[in-house]
Input
Amino acid sequence: MGMRVLVCLCAFAAAPLYGQFEYGEILGTVRDTSGAVVAGAKVTARGIDTNVQRSSLTNEQGNYSFPDLLRGNYEVSAGVTGFRAAKSEPLELRVGARLRMDLTLEPGELNEQVTVEAEATPLLETDTSTRGQVIQSQQIRELPLNKRDYTQLVLLAPGTTYNPDQRLGGAISINGNRTLQNDYLLDGVDNNSHATSFRGDRVDVILPSVDAVEEFRVQSNGYSAEYGHSAGAVVNVTIKSGTDQFHGAGWEFFRNDDMDAHGWTPTLGGAKPKVRFNLFGSNVGGPILKDKTFFFMIMRATASAMA
Output
């Protein structure tokens, strides 16, 4: 029987780190009720879970953009003298996504506020050429995974299949491309094995615990220039972070031969092979400096025996 204990501590500050690719973008146009654009309006994007705020002014065309926001829930507001402030309903920003939120300002006092309902997702995406699929935290948490390997969930994206010639972790062919043509990113950092002989056990270098993965996006084609690293797809993984509230969880995942079926051919005198696998863990996250800096910590222990 073997025992392994893993302790991982990650702290995330609210300050932007330019050049990373796990960010999403919220953009839009501010207009008045006549349809004319409003230049110089102050637009603020506030993280609902962290209360971190980013502000910008609309340009001469009334456009604004927040290109480096971490995934999460946001509230966008806009205001300028002579108009009532406008505020959006909560918006959910996914990893690597571009989310449009246009706001309309009505004449009135600035201390008055109008809530703008989020528009339905358009059938035709006009803000980006990227095509792909987000694997969300609920899918990662609840779908069965052998060996707790998140890369198996990449197969949920269209056009994906295991590469039959390489039985290695993360060895997936997407849209007919070779396994080593895929690009793995972990919180915006290159996570690819660059060994020329490729005699390792995985295509990606670091395998994060599925309990630490918030979500990931499989960008299969048409991605923008900053991802121009490979001919295949981009698997863009983001790790969980703390919020302004303390949250925690504990769990146990297990495998046991008592729950296994007998095979088609008799083995070991008809007895089933012994399997005992227990994975215990917990995580906790919260603020270090309220509204500024947050932490997330995961602890994991495994015990296994096989015969």
Q: What stands out?
A: The chain has three domains: 2-11+244-306, 21-116, 131-237.
